[in-house]
Amino acid sequence: MILAFNTSTLQYGMALMDERGSVISEFFLAPRSRNFGHFMPSLDSMLRTTGVETKDLRAIIVARGPGSFTGLRVGLSAAKGICQGLQIPLIGVSSLEALASQIPFPSKPICPIIDSRRGEVFAALFSASEGEPIERVRDDTPLRFEELDSFVIDKTLFVGNDFAGQGRLIHDLLGPRALLAPPPLWNLRASALGIAGLERYRKGDFDDLRDLVPAYLRPPDIRPNPFPPP
Fold first, then answer.
1. Residue 62 maps to a domain
2. In this structure, how many other beta carbons lie within 10 angstroms of the beta carbon of residue 23?
3. DSSP 8-state assignment for residue 165
4. How many CB atoms lie within 10 A of CB 53?
5. Which 3 state secondary structure label does DSSP give 184?
6. Which contiguous run of DSSP H or E holds residue 29?
7. If DSSP codes are grouped into helix, strand and coil, which group holds residue 13?
8. Nearest to 105 by CA among 134, 84, 64, 135
9. Total tally of structural domains belonging to the chain
């Protein structure tokens, strides 16, 4: 049994899959605040309701970013702790690659985006041939939103983590060059991470627990305390 989870976006989730990629159970939550307090209780609930025991887990596949700084630390810390305790392998997957892989049978380039901070996004670009796996064209990159205009050249299919907010802005910026994926696809699913990491699992291509770190891509947004202690 494979456990996959995503905490790189405000919407977070987890999935249990067999080694062929079939989803046994999946949990998804979009909390109203940037709070991951329900993450571990949700994981415990999913294991109990499916009857899966921790000894049944063979690997963990986790989002390594880019995305929420706090979320990435939560997800990777939990993944490393479980893997170390159970002595099972860990596989980290790009959040943007997994998001792009959710598009079924694409015929246009795919640009996945995830919110970063004040008017900025993380973006990547993938090419697609119908019936073939997506191939990376541009690396995961932090951008000002308006820089998407030069990041993509041809008509491109966009998918992100906030359809209501990002979709309108993309359409206004790029006009007919922007094709928007259907709204239900604008959330990163843990099962997509699992599928993206399964090929590496089958090849025995695992990450080192000590070396796998969050892909932040930019410095943390740390601000001085306006009310320093006396």
1. yes
2. 15
3. I
4. 10
5. helix
6. strand 23-29
7. strand
8. 134
9. 2
The count of other CB atoms within 10 Å of the CB of residue 229 is 4
Q: Is residue 211 part of a domain?
A: no
Sequence-ordered alpha helix ranges (H) in the chain: 39-50, 69-86, 95-100, 148-151, 168-174, 190-203
Quote the domain boundaries for residue 135: 103-185
Q: Do residues 193 and 119 share a domain?
A: no
Write the Ramachandran bin of 28: left for phi over 0, alpha for psi from -120 to 50, otherwise beta. Answer: beta
Q: Is residue 28 part of a domain?
A: yes
Q: What is the CATH number of the domain that holds 71?
A: 3.30.420.40
Please tell me whether residues 192 and 162 are part of one structural domain. Answer: no
Return the pLDDT at 104: 87
105 Cβ partners below 8 Å, 6+ apart? 130, 131
User: Could you tell me the two tokens for 180?
Assistant: 């928007």
Instruction: Please give the pLDDT value at position 133.
Output: 83
Q: Please name which of 7, 51, 5, 9 lies closest in space to residue 26, comparing C-alpha atoms.
A: 5
> 109 and 165: one domain?
yes
139 shares its domain with 172 = yes
Examine the domain organization and report whether 16 and 64 are in the same domain: yes
Q: Which residue has the tokens 């410095």?
A: 219
d(CA 107, CA 156): 9
Co-location of 17 and 127 in the same domain = no
Q: Consecutive sets of 10 residues in the chain, 230 residues long: mean pLDDT of each?
A: 94 94 92 76 94 96 94 94 97 97 91 89 90 90 95 95 94 96 95 95 96 86 50
Say if residue 166 is in the same domain as residue 195: no
144 Cβ neighbours under 8 A, 6+ residues apart: 119, 120
